[in-house]
Design goal:
The complex is a heterodimer. Chain A is mostly helical. Chain A is about 65% helix and about 5% strand. Chain A contains 15 helices and 6 strands. In chain A, helix 2 runs antiparallel to helix 9. By secondary structure, chain B is of the alpha/beta class. The chains are: A mainly alpha, B alpha/beta. Chains A and B meet through helix 1, helix 2, strand 4 and helix 7 of A and helix 1, strand 2, helix 3 and helix 4 of B.
């Protein structure tokens, strides 16, 4: 379907369904129940799932296919967000110009940074991208551009937001919140069924549809002759050079595509929440993208998206579990045991979510080098293996009879 | 591309799926109106969101805020001794929750980052159904979360935020600030500094590079220059820098005789400690003893900086050593529960929670517009700051400001700061359109939904 082979089509349809039904699937526990804490089906988090999904899909085109580890990808996300917020400030809250400009600006930045960084490979490439990203972070954080021009451009640590006295020349009577030709991003429909309440939000679906489109594009790139060249760069760049293929244009194209994906993600972040700051470009944000990819499974289509989901889930859900909540869960235990249990769990929840994430990451890297995708494959294989001896046995029985 | 085999069936199938996908958001319109965001169910609990930094440079303040907020919820629900409810000039709260609703709370970690703080606040509003967001340290975060609460239609009771902008150019109709601000610090410190250090000083500013640092520096510079002081230089430093030695070394040869540290939290502890290690306090410049001033103090910073703060001047919103009834009641119930005196940040967050609860009771509704109306131009007393009022024009509280000094000979571990002067409210007041606060727009109150 749509130029994809059978297996990819199945995967694509599964992703589509997951994105469309996420507000229901990720809200398994009734509101008000003790486990409602674990629900992730609220719009702000769902948006992050799909937006960071777009970001890592793009990152995977570079890192997964060519093996070039960019350690400064958050910079493109950041410039995308700044471009989008500036469009809100200057034109209106319509997200179309904002998102288009954020992709273009991120593309331009990635052409320049990629042109310079791609002259080196391996660790030197990573360090160059990291250096560029940190430079851009510092420029944005201290608002050096703004200080030269004389008006805030990135507004430093405070971050850039839209004020009532901004020009917004196309605003007119339009909505005072990001919208797509009048369809407001933050308006939603709530569906109450039994104890559940499912929220379907416009902004989430817009970001979700863009993620599906990005995913489709990524599948096509993975399966294209261009994708094949990128893979061969990963396996042996020298041999490719000796064969007479100049690899640099291919590399630069992959880098720019992946930068534009990041720009799209940045633009969408601003479209969902019209404020941005330099902290989005900090090197830890870039590191997080790498961790998302590795956690999920580098080079696989679905892996990085899963990784992004797991990390955003931990950041937003595990960090909000506090001692009181745990006390609520284990209230059935005798007091001494209850306190003991809470004391054991305490370091891993709330502000300790980084520790939990670190342990999960270590476990994945040590036991599942292929990431969560490998976990899925192994479980799948287990079931198949169980089945096959049985069928062998039955056939053997048949044979004897 | 390789295999572009569009079959009729394929195109139809994809078309159907795509159009169904596109149709979903248009079909699902905004739901019926409940009047305002997260209205509590009849007889159900009402939820507050306590959004504070639990990690990062301001984590100490954040964790202390959390303790105070927990205490406030206990008092609202009738657990414990009632604390400030007994001394508060309004007697609407009786320990049975708010308007018959039991009070619950959820917590979140802002990490002192705007993006994380907004994500956490969104989760509180969308997932947990919070009706009010309270707390926070750092003005950058407060400004960001205040904007979010305005859009979402919930009340934001700002915690520790000292920037002029929070109730200046970034003020919002749904946001309220009990804490004082940079301008008030400058106005209160001015006369004390004049009496102590005279009119001929040359000041060198190290300033945290964000909205709070900028506006506090501007305020202090204005009030010291009014005394006749000169400003040597203003150097901006990144938040959470950790090591300030490269910023402090140039001070030695700058010819300045006063160092003003516009830093807060862990940053202030580091920069002050390093300044003392560089021997600045024992130096003589222009025939005068070198002086360090920290315009915004907190007990937690004082404890962190240890003996380095001895003799250093600063200002505070409130201190546990005050001797009025409100302060005594609060220090008693906080001290009994946690074993040490509360910080100024804890006091502000505690008071903000009670003020919100009281405003709801007086308004008779949780609707943010009703609550905002009840808080605007509201005069009260008995909360430890003396007679206080919430100005309607910019949602800033006006009250006395404390000028503090690091205790020269501390007698115990909590005896770190002493009150030099309680600056009367009239001296720190300003017009809403004062140039340092101009340019903002309160906008309309937003009930959401």
């Amino acid at each position: 379907m749509l130029g994809m082979n059978g297996k990819d089509t199945t995967l694509f349809i599964v992703v589509c369904l997951m994105v469309l039904l996420a507000p229901i699937l990720l809200n398994p526990f009734p509101t008000g129940s003790a486990f409602a804490q674990f629900n992730a089906g609220y719009p702000a988090l769902l948006q992050r799932f799909v937006i960071f999904g777009i970001l890592v899909i793009g990152f995977n085109i570079l890192f997964g296919l060519t093996g070039y580890l960019s350690f400064g990808h958050a910079a493109f996300l950041g410039v995308g967000s700044f471009a989008a917020v500036w469009m809100f400030k200057l034109l209106s809250y319509n997200i179309v110009p904002a998102i288009v400009l954020s992709v273009i600006v991120a593309g331009l930045f990635s052409v320049v940074i990629g042109y310079v960084s791609l002259r080196r490979s391996g660790i030197y490439f990573s360090i160059l991208t990291l250096a560029f990203a940190q430079m851009m972070y510092s420029i944005a954080y201290s608002d050096l551009v703004g200080k030269v021009i004389g008006t805030p451009i990135t507004n430093g640590e405070t971050g850039l937001q839209v004020y009532n006295d901004d020009p917004q020349i196309l605003l007119g009577d339009g909505p005072k919140t990001p919208h797509l030709f009048g369809l407001e991003m933050n308006s939603s429909f709530t569906w109450d069924v039994g104890g559940w309440s499912f929220v379907f939000q416009n902004g989430y679906y817009l970001a979700g549809i863009l993620m599906i489109a990005s995913f489709y594009l990524a599948i096509r790139i993975f399966r294209s002759p261009f994708g094949l060249v990128l893979r061969s760069i990963k396996s042996n760049q020298n041999r490719l050079n000796y064969t007479g293929i100049s690899t640099r244009p291919y590399m630069l194209t992959a880098f720019v595509i992946s930068g534009m994906y990041a720009g799209l993600a940045g633009g969408l972040l601003a479209a969902m929440d019209p404020l941005t700051g330099a902290e989005r470009m900090f090197w830890t944000a870039s590191g997080e993208i790498v961790i998302m990819s590795i956690l999920g499974g580098v080079g696989t289509l679905i892996g990085p998206i899963l990784g992004a989901g797991v990390i955003k889930y931990m950041e937003n859900i595990v960090s909000t579990i506090n001692d009181n909540v745990v006390h609520g869960w284990v209230a059935f235990m005798p007091d001494g045991l209850e306190n003991f249990f809470v004391a054991i769990i305490h370091p891993f929840i709330g502000k300790g979510w980084h520790l939990t994430l670190g342990l999960v990451f270590m476990a994945v890297v040590i036991f599942l080098p292929g990431g969560l995708v490998e976990l899925g494959q192994r479980i799948g294989a287990k079931f198949r293996r169980k089945k096959s001896p049985e069928s062998a046995a039955t056939s053997a029985e048949k044979g004897t009879v | 591309m390789s295999n572009s085999n569009f079959s009729r069936r394929g195109v139809l199938k994809t078309g159907a799926i795509a159009s169904a996908g596109l149709a979903v958001p248009t079909y699902l319109r905004a739901d019926g109106h409940t009047g305002f965001t997260n209205a509590p169910a009849d007889g159900g609990a009402v939820k507050f969101g306590f959004n504070v930094p639990q990690t990062g440079p301001y984590a100490e303040e954040g964790l202390d805020e959390l303790r105070a907020q927990e205490l406030a919820v206990e008092h609202l629900n009738g657990i414990g001794d009632g604390g400030l409810l007994n001394t508060f000039s309004e007697k609407n709260l009786d320990g049975t929750g708010i308007l018959g609703h039991k009070v619950e709370f959820v917590t979140g970690d802002t990490q002192t980052k705007s993006d994380v703080a907004r994500a956490s606040a969104q989760s509180m509003i969308q997932k947990d159904g919070c009706i009010m967001i309270n707390g926070g340290s750092s003005s950058g975060v407060a400004v960001a979360v205040q904007g979010l609460c305005q859009d979402a239609g919930v009340i934001f009771m700002a915690g520790l935020t000292h920037s002029n902008d929070t109730t200046g150019k970034d003020k919002k109709a749904n946001g309220f600030r009990h804490f004082f601000n940079g301008y008030m610090s400058g106005a209160a410190l001015g006369p004390v500094l004049e009496a102590e250090y005279g009119n001929e000083r040359n000041a060198y500013h190290l300033t945290a590079d964000y909205t709070w640092g900028w506006t506090q520096q501007e305020s202090i510079q204005a009030s010291t220059e009014a005394l006749g002081w000169t400003t040597n230089q203003n150097v901006l430093t990144p938040v959470g820098a950790g090591d300030f030695s490269s910023y402090i070394a140039p001070v030695l040869n700058s010819g300045a005789d006063t160092l003003i540290l516009n830093h807060y939290g862990g940053d202030m502890v580091n920069s002050l400690t390093q300044a003392v290690q560089f021997g600045l306090k024992d130096k003589q410049v222009n025939g005068k003893d070198f002086t360090i001033i920290v315009p915004l103090y907190s007990e937690l910073m004082a404890a962190g900086a240890g003996s380095n703060i001895q003799g250093v001047f600063g200002s505070m919103n409130w201190n546990w050593q005050l001797q009025d009834e409100g302060t005594k009641a609060f220090v008693k119930s906080f001290g009994e529960k946690f074993g040490f005196p509360p910080s100024g940040a804890a006091h502000t967050c505690y008071v903000q929670t009670l003020l919100y609860a009281d405003a709801v009771t007086r308004a008779g509704t949780f609707n943010p517009c009703g609550v905002a109306e009840a808080l605007e131009d509201f005069d009260f007393d008995g909360m430890g700051n003396g007679p206080t009022s919430y100005r309607g024009a910019d949602h800033q509280c006006f009250k006395d400001v404390l000028v503090m000094k690091g205790t020269d000979n501390p007698t115990n571990q909590f005896d770190t700061l002493e009150i030099v002067e309680v600056t009367p409210r009239a001296q720190v007041e300003y017009e809403p359109d004062h140039p340092m606060f101009a340019g903002g727009d309160l906008g309309e109150c937003n009930p959401g939904a």
